[in-house]
Design brief:
Length: 118
Amino acid sequence: MIRLLWITGGLIALGCGFLGLFLPLLPTVPFLLLAAFCFARSSQSLHDWLVAHDTLGPPIRDWRDRGAVSARAKRFASVSAAAALVLTWALGFGTLALAVQAAALACVLTFLWTRPDA
């Protein structure tokens, strides 16, 4: 039963990661990392397939081997964070909401930009 939950979680994360390839504000790599994590606990064959995949595997391997994130992903995350702040402001959310969001995004981007380049 637990194995089935891990596989289900991995498949859901993989689906979200796949959608992130096409939807601009949905991240891909965090969902792929989550899928690999879930599959490592439930299905060695699914884990091996994902990590060896020509398109989906490289960011997982970069993170696993060196904790690295591609410069392209860092730039995209930065642009997405700025767009999210602009959208929050344009929708008329209050100053507190903007400040909290800005602080959270600044922490995420600081972490991201301190990772080595893939």
